[in-house]
Here is the input.
Amino acid sequence: MISNAHEALADRESGVAPIFLEWFNIELASRCNLRCKWCSLDFDKPSVNMDEALLGKALDELLSSGWTIGEIALHNGGEALMHPRLPAILDVIAARRAGRESFPFISLLTNGVLMNERKAGQILASGAVDMVRFSVGRVSDRDRRCRERKSVNALATKNRCTPNAP
Ligand code: SF4
Here is the structure.
């Protein structure tokens, strides 16, 4: 606490403002099982999964940066639950959280299509995630047709799928 106060004073004297990063997004899987009209994900880019070592390196750099980080969201574009090694990814986060007095709030956003008892259990057991957010809405006939074409059978959102989604 004292060193933080000294650092803040030094920053003020040097004209460097302390950095508060309200929200940091991490994309776990660069693909999705839906095609929302408003999605920012580039579906033409290579479909990759976040690597555990890379995630650990990114977190270590963030946590040692001296920045104050409000929230790390395990979502950018893409569906986080499509990561094939989700438990290992969550372990990377939980290992950084262990023993720390403070840690950024960790949220995971999902469209819910792949959520089941096993995945929910993995997330809960990891101790890595503070909040799971679901993107859910009303299902229209058109969405249902699109959903069937995409072979997803759980949840879909009004206007989520474009009529010509592949
Ligand atoms: S569920 Fe999310 S990632 Fe998937 S298409 Fe919709 S906005 Fe994009």
User: Anything to note?
Assistant: Residues 32, 34-36, 39, 41, 77-79, 111, 135 surround iron/sulfur cluster (CB under 6 Å).
